[in-house]
Structures are given as C-alpha cells and as structure tokens.
Amino acid sequence: MGGHDSVLADPADPTPNRRRIGRSLGMLFLIEGTLGEAWLLLPHRGAQPMALLAICVLAQLVGLWLRHGAVDEAPMWVLKAIVAVATLIAVAACVLSGSPRTGFAFLFLWVTPYAVYFGLRHAILQTGLAVIGLVGSRIAIAHGHLVTIDIREWLLPAATIVVVSSIVYQLTRDLGHADRERLVSERERAEAETRRAASERERAHREAAMARLGRLALRASDRALLFDETVRVLTETLRVEHCSIVELPRDSAEMVTVAAVGFDAAATVPADVQRLAGYVLGGDEPIIVWEWASEKRFSVPSLRDHGIRASSAAAIRGRSGAFGFIGVHSTTVGAFSGEEGQWLQSIADLLASALDRERSEAVMRHQSLHDSLTGLPNRALLFDRIEHAFGRAERFGSAVAVLLLDLDGFKTVNDSLGHHAGDELLIEVGSRLQEVVRTSDTVARLGGDEFVVLAEVESDAEAFDVSTRIAAIWEAPFAAASGEVFCSASVGIAVGRKAEAPAKLLREADAAMYRAKERGRGRSEIFDEEMRRDAFERLRTESDLRRALERDEFRVMYQPIFDTTTLRPIAVEALVRWQHPTRGIVGPVEFIPLAEETGLIAPLGRWVLEHAVAEVAGWSQRFPELPLRVAVNVSGQQLARPEFLQEVRAALEASDLPPELLGLEITESILINESGNARSTLESLRKIGVKVLIDDFGTGYSSLARLKRFPLDVIKIDRSFVDGVGAEDEDTAIVAAIVDIARSLGLQVIAEGVEGEVQLERLRELGCHAAQGYLFSGPMQGEAFAAFLAGDEPRSATAVAGL
What we know:
By secondary structure, the protein is α/β, with parallel strands linked by helices. About 55% of the residues lie in helices and about 15% in strands. The chain has 27 helices and 24 strands.
C-alpha cells in the first residue's frame, strides 16, 4: 500500500504531501535545465545561448536544492511560489530561445498540473498564468506584436495546457475518491481487526479467569476461599465495582451473603435483593439490567442506593438443587451485554459443579464413616475416635472405656417378625443409646446387632455407671412391626489407661461381652486379667491351629461301636485329635469351635474324612468277615458348602469304600437351622447309600417335626442321659422314650458314654441297638485299632441295619 509519503496528497486529508511535491518539483527543474542545455547543442538561430545556459543552470541548482529536501517542512505558499517560478523559468526559456518553434512552450505542461494538488482554484490561477506566460513569450519573440499567423504556434500549447490540467484534475479527483474508499475500507478493516483482537483478548482473559477458578474448584477444600476468589475474579474480569454471592437458606429463614466486593458481607440481605433472588432462580437464563432507572420488571432500591446503575445475575443451580445466585453490578449504564451474562452463567455453573462435588464427597465421607441403617458412626470412625480419646486421656490422666453391646434374642425378632421389624428395633436402640450417654460419648454400630459406646472415664466404676444408664433403656418396650418388643443386651466393658490399638480394645470388650452371655445375658462384665490370659491363649491357639494342617499335627483316633446283643464291633467313630508340639494331645472341645469361627473347619473336615475313609477301607480288606462301618462328624459349615457332596464322593472313589459303609454324624443345631443346602446335600448322600446319624440327641431344642422331616438313619443318645440309665428313673424313661420314637420312625439307636454293665443291660432291655463307651474301649490310634481287630476272634456278627 505504501507509506505516508507514497502519494502527493491524502484523499482523506486534502493537505498536499510537501515532501513528495517538493522533491518531484526538484526533479522537474533538473529535467528542464538538462533539456535546455541539450537544446543548445543543436543548430539554431536568434537564440541567446549564454543567457539560456544560465537559466538552465539556475533550474538545475534549484532542482538539486529541492531534491535535498529544502522545502520538506516549508509552508504551503512556498510550494505554490516554486510552481510559479517553474512557470516563469519556462517563459524565460521560450523567450531566450528566440523562436516559437523550439518546443520550450511545452515545458509549461510539466509545471502547471502540480497546481491541481493545491485545489481547483489554484489550478485555474496557475493555468491562467501559464497561458499568459506562453502568449507573452510569443509576443516577446515577435517584438511586441501578436502576429495572427503565429497564433497556431501558441494556441495549441495553450489549449494543451488547459486540457492536460483538466485531465489531471479529473484523474486526481477520481484517484482521490478511489483512495478515499480504499482507505476508508482499510480503516474499517483495521477497526474491525482491532475490535476482534480486543474481543479475543477479552475472551482469552475470561477463559483464563474461568480456568483459574476451575483449578481452584478442584483443589480447594475451603468453600469460603472459592467464593472469595470468585468475586475477586469477577470484579477484575468484568471491571465492575460490586459483586456478591448470596446463599439460599437451608437451616435458617434468611438468605446469607457468603462473599462480596463493594458490599458488607456480614450485613443482612435486603428484602428487595431476596425478591431479586427469587426472580433469578425462577428463570432459566441470567438476567441483565441495562439501566435500573428504566427497569420495569422489578425494583431494587438498595442497589441504587450504592450508586449502581446496571446489573447482571445468574443462578447457581446444580444436581442437588439451587444453592443461590451471583450478582455483578456497575455504576455505568449498559455495562453488561448478553455475552457477559452468559459468561456469568458459566461461572455460576462452574460453582454449582464444585458445590455438587463437595456435597457428593461429603455424602460419601459420611457414608464411609457411618452406618447406613442407623446413621451412627461405623467401625472406621469409631477407631479414629478411640485414637483421639487416648490422646486426650494421656494429657488429662483419664482412661478410655469401650462398652460393646450385643442384643439378646435379636435373631428371634428377625425370624418371627421379619427383617423390617429387626431394622426398626436397631434404629430405636441406637436412638435410645444416644439419649442416655453424654454428649462427649460416641455411640457406634459395628454391624448386625452389635453397638459400641465409647466414653472417657476416670475409673472402672464410672464405666459401670455408663453401663447402668444403658441398662435403663431396656425397661420400656420397643415399637416394632406395629407391636411392642422387649429387648435386653449383654455388655462387655474394656477400659484402657494407656494408648493401645482400637482393635485390641474392642477384642477385650468382645471377650467380656461373651462372658456376660455365658453368665446369664442381660448383664455387664468388665475385661480382667483372667480374660486377658484366656484371650491370649485363644489367639495363640488360633495361630497354632492355622499351621497345624501344614505341619501334619492332626491325628484321627477311632472308638469302636458294639452291637448290644452280640457285643461284637460293628462300626467305628472317627475322632480328630490335635497333637500339639508343646501341649500334647488337644481335645476337639478346645479347637473345633475355633476352627469353625476361623473357617479352618472345611479343610480340616475334608482331611479327616479322606483319612478315615482310607483307613477303614484298608481294614475292610484285611478283615472282610467284619462288616465294619465308619462314622465321621461333620459341621453345619461343611454341609453348607456346595463342594461337600463332591468331596465325599471323591473320598469314597479314592478309597474304594462302598458308600453303605460311611455314616456322617450331624448335630441337632443343623436340624434347628433347617438349612436348605444342608438338607439337599444329605438327601443326595443318602441316595448314593451314605448313612446320616444325629449326634448328642436330646441336648438341643429340635422338635419331633424336624426329626421327621430331616433325612436320618440313626439317633445317637447323648451320654448325659445314658449316665443315669438303670440308676435314675428319669434318665431311664427319657432313653426309653427316645428308643420308642426312633423305632416308630424306623431309625436305629446308638447309646454314647456307656461305662457300666448295668447301663448296658438296661439299654439292651430297652431295645437300644448299639453302644459305645469306655466299657468297651476308648478312642485308639489307627495302628492300635487294627491290632484290636486282629486280636479279636473272627466270628459272624449281625450288623445294625442302619450302620
């Protein structure tokens, strides 16, 4: 396009470009002088060579002077005078040439058009001067006479001067118009680019502000910090004087200003601003007030009192509902456009997302630390509070008490009234516990029907006082299933005076709670040194038990079962013993319950089954004349496992023992639970020939209906009834009744714990089919039992049909 000096005159500004005109005129003077000197080299007549040469040299000097910028800063009249001087030099050259035909007349054409750049009026004057000079030069050459015949010599140059000046003027005007349009277009384009660049800068500034707020929303855990930074960013980005974030009431009746610039954040939100909040929250788009003085939708005098003339507001609305709104205000009319309103809404949406995330995280934290049913602290939060309680106890010399409550008979409520009633009972228990403890105490639920009360106490007596207050909640009935339920709890208390692991303190309370249940339920027991020793012993036993299978420390012992009529061995019960490396033989009473609690009963039971079946199969091959059968004890946990049926089949196949020679002993608790899996497993085993025996019959609470429904083959009468047979009428009557019931159901009967001849004789009279006990033999290891079988004379014996 060229720079500032690329044109003689700016069409938008008619002032001529002095530098360009001056230097262009300088070039004209140089050309005029040079052409004059060149003309002197040609043959001519009547000329005055020296005078003409002087004029040519003068023109060249003036040209050099102008080319060096002599008139770049000169006033306009100087340029006009130089154009006139150029005309006069042309006139002098014509006169001194001495002939009208020399061609010097056309030098006027080179000077006159420059006057066009000074305006039409000056162009006319300069053209007139040039024509007069041309005519005058002709008159001077003609010695003062205007010869008619010579008119053609000056008329054509004169007309040419006028025409060329007119053409140059027209071209200059057209070019100036085109240049003006071009420059206007360029100016408009430049202004558009400037506006676009400003818009891009503003957009980039807003995006950077939003990105900064977004990063802060992700990192900041302090809501107040996020709000304060938001109002600061809004006031800086939108260049406003006032901004506020108003929160909707949740627990109170009044709105609250949570962050503000230009307002008092602690002041009460005016009523008119609250009405504005309702309007903002009732719409889907941000509101924009161009000027409060002309606003017809609503009136907010409190804003106008601050000198505010324009406003924009956007609702902060997330998935969890409306939080409040953001308002920005300016003292300038029309300060906010639709684009700025949408950007403000974007900021409000960003805050809504951050608040939704905060609320979701709060809910998740609460759910992770509280029981979903009762809303009480769970195990994780309880452990954290126990640790903090120990920290305070060490500073103040106090102690930490943990009271573990286990509801007595809660399973009965669930089974009889349903789980919904059980849930209602648990919720009510948690509520009552919170009412009787101190505000500094913690009530937690561990799961199931277990609750924990954490209290900071000075002594064991104060811990019992807490237990006493807890006992009072059981006096009134609980509402459950549209009725009333009375309930009680066994409470175990553990008091720690030095910091210890929360899990350890809870284990101690658990041990005390089980002691309370053993001693009658509905009572409290505190953990003492005896319990500590028992707990330590239990822990050590559990640790040793987990390694016992790997170290092959278990042994299977066998106690024979005899026919009461022939007194011949007809079966054998497999009994597991633990050969402890330091404690010697450990009985099943000590480790079987622990194995069931820890889940080790499954691998242990499988090992006993495989080992016993394999040994009995070997004896059956050595002593084919003895119809020896084996009874193996199984727990409810084993029967509940889907793999148990396949495990029995695999043991029988591996040993080649006929299924009819295997019996599985179960306890009455399995009948009471009436597990569908256990029943179906036993029925499947009976189909392949395996017998089912119920052990220790009479010690549980099973009914005759369950006895009838369950797939059984043999009843084993518990030793507690057998002890008095023949000596005590009650025991004898009970055993007789059991035998009669078994006979009516088609079941066989075995008496356990037979130790005297009188017992055996009376059992035989009552119709008991078989017996086992120390009268015949105690449990023996496999080698001893094989020797026992080998030493017995092989005689035919009629086996009990069920075995």
